[in-house]
Amino acid sequence: MTHQIEGTTPFDGEQARKGYALNKMCFSFNEAANRTAFQKDEEAYMAQFGLTEVQKAAIRSRQVLQLIEAGGNVYYLAKFAGIFGLDMQDIGAQQTGMSKDEFKAKLKAYADSNGLSSLGLTRGSMPGRGLPGQAGQ
Amino acid sequence: MAQLIGGLASSHIPAIGGAIHKGLQADPYWAPFFAGYPPVQKWLAEHKPDVMVIFYNDHGLNFFLDKMPTFAVGAAARYDNADEGWGIPTLPSFQGEVDLSWQIINHLVAKDFDIVTCQEMLVDHACTLPLKLFWPEGEAPVSIVPVNINTVQFPLPSAKRCYALGKAVGEAIAAWDSDKKVAVLASGGLSHQLDGARAGFINKAFDLQFMESLVANPEWATQFSSLELVEKTGTQGVELLMWLAMRAALSSAGPRVKEVHRNYHIPISNTATGLMAFEVAG
Q: Is the pLDDT reported for residue B100 higher than 50?
């Protein structure tokens, strides 16, 4: 995909191929029994779904940016985060390196803005797949 | 023939379900959001649609990556809500409107849309929460036809294609041999991004321009590719594709489409929330 968007990894065919096992495991967390099974023995549960070593490490790290880098899709990752009682603002704070209060303040600030800074966003100012501060695979 | 009486659009956010469950409607954080809904509730109470055709995006409840349809139309007699992984209380099942489902399916295929049809389909918070917001007391007094648009896996359908889909759905409703009153609903948006280093991105200026465009120039946003919409509105802001499909369903009514209500509030969770209601004047 040539269209690069700052700080954004569109979940395209490449990601879908890379992340299939990881996402399939996270999809299974729709069911409470599977969430319990994962919590009982994370390693066995990950092995059952055939996660790669990179994906296993990402799961162990609980780091969303690392999980995305491993092919995770946010809709399925949200179910993984739910196991730990994390909401979208916890996840947002983690990905942006802010405290939750800082992240909430950032969101709230948009309400008072005229939005013009958002309009100034330029295309391709950062490589879409480059996750800042993230070690490459 | 059936009567297409109007179109609604509302954000959906799992946290709303939690807030309703905890009775936080008057809480200072939530009040500006919930306060947007009474005018729409009033409109619905006065106009009493029998059926709601719902454009929404599944969030990994019914569809997984093993089979990921671009457009999927529900054809079930009953739609169940289910655990999405977060323990939010599930809502009672919704009654389907099977005759209208097949009317829409037949018309869409005749118009060259290669859709997936679903005689079993779990519906997630995107489908259920707007109905709960519209009818906070008890169950929604409508049967439904869910129309799912993929926003999970790229490439997403283009804004232009979603508009064409919505237009064809509107034609199908208008040609349905029934005396029922039908409304269309878009669930999703407005700007927000959950994933990546840009998480928390909101674009108020674009949202306001988009909402305004739906009044008199509804095809305005079809100039953008789906990735351009992601850039402008966030990875989940692209859910405005639902709003385009909804508005397109009303497009054959031309200038008879009147805006009834609008609300915009930042933020609920990570989202700039939007609510709009359109009426097709008789």
A: yes
The answer to whether B199 and A92 are in contact (CB under 8 A) is yes
Which residues constitute the domain of residue B104? 3-280
**Per-residue confidence (pLDDT) for residue B282, from 0 to 100:** 79
Mean pLDDT for chain B? 96
For chain A, positions 80-119, list CB contacts with chain B under 8 A. 82-83, 87-89, 91-92, 95-96, 103-104, 106-108, 110-111, 113-116, 118-119
Q: pLDDT tens digits, residue range B236-251?
A: 999 999 999 999 999 9
What pLDDT, on a 0 to 100 scale, did the predictor assign at position A114?
58
Phi, psi (degrees; rounded to nearest 5) at B223 = -70, -20
Domains and CATH numbers, chain A: 13-84 (1.10.700.10)
Angle value at C-alpha B145, between B140 and B148, nearest 5 degrees: 115
User: What pTM value is reported for the model?
Assistant: 0.93
Q: What value of ipTM does the predicted structure carry?
A: 0.95
Chain A positions touching B204 (Cβ under 8 A) are: 110-111, 113-115, 118
Chain B 26-85, residues with CB within 8 Å of chain A CB atoms: 59-61, 64-66, 82-85
Whether the CB-CB separation of B189 and B263 falls below 8 Å is answered with: no
